[in-house]
Amino acid sequence: MGNTTSSAISKEILEDLKLSTIFTETEISQWYENFQKQCPTGRITPEEFEQIYSRFFPDSDAKSYARHVFRSFDTNDDGTLDFKEYIIALHMTSTGKTTRKLEWAFSLFDVDKNGYINKTEVTEICQAIFKLIPKEEQVKLPEDENTPEKRANKLWSYFEKKDSERLAEGEFIQGVLQNENAMNLILYEQSKK
């Protein structure tokens, strides 16, 4: 059988990933092997991605958030992630420089992919993020952040836009960088136990 569905990762992809992430060649190759095992087709479906992602959040419901993360990394809109999109997804959500992370966060919030964010989209993502927060942590949140709607209102207020206005990527990034707390509202970091 001429089975050449590359069990080894292509040099080109490897170089590309080494440049765009902080991972080493060994790490990338290791993940690639696991990826091949878990996804023999070389593609991850939204369902598979949800399962992988949910392992990171054992105490909460990561489903809707995982779906949005998936959408934001499915750059060619084919309904699957290939290895490269997958590694970059994991990299961006776990490490990554602030500006790159914010560029990604923008695409996460841009639900309809039209290049702008509106308040409805912000509310939708805030709801998904809220579900990531374990119940016992939700109870401890400050009064103006203890529901998804309050979080969306608070976040939106940082951008000094009317509810009917929309936000471009540059404005989004600048708004978050200027307000330290905005970062906590757009990305949920698990408290390390």
Q: Which features characterize this protein?
A:
193 residues, 11 helices, globular, disordered N terminus, 2% strand, 2 strands, mainly alpha, two-stranded antiparallel ribbon
Walkthrough of the structure:
By secondary structure, the protein is an all-alpha fold. The chain has helices at residues 11-20, 25-38, 46-54, 63-73, 83-94, 98-109, 119-132, 135-138, 148-158, 169-178, 180-186, and strands at residues 116-117, 167-168. The chain has a two-stranded antiparallel sheet. α3 packs across α4, α4 (63-73) crosses α7 (119-132) and α10 packs across α11. The chain is globular.
Per the principal axes of the C-alpha atoms, what is the gross shape? Answer: globular
Order of helices and strands: HHHHHHEHHHEHH
How many DSSP E strands?
A: 2
- Overall pLDDT level: 87
For the termini, the CA-CA separation is: 49 Å
Going across the major beta sheet, what is the strand order?
1-2
Main beta sheet strand tally, sense and closure: 2 strands, antiparallel
List the helices and strands and how they pair.
Blueprint: H1 11-20, H2 25-38, H3 46-54, H4 63-73, H5 83-94, H6 98-109, E1 116-117, H7 119-132, H8 135-138, H9 148-158, E2 167-168, H10 169-178, H11 180-186
Antiparallel strand pairs: 1-2
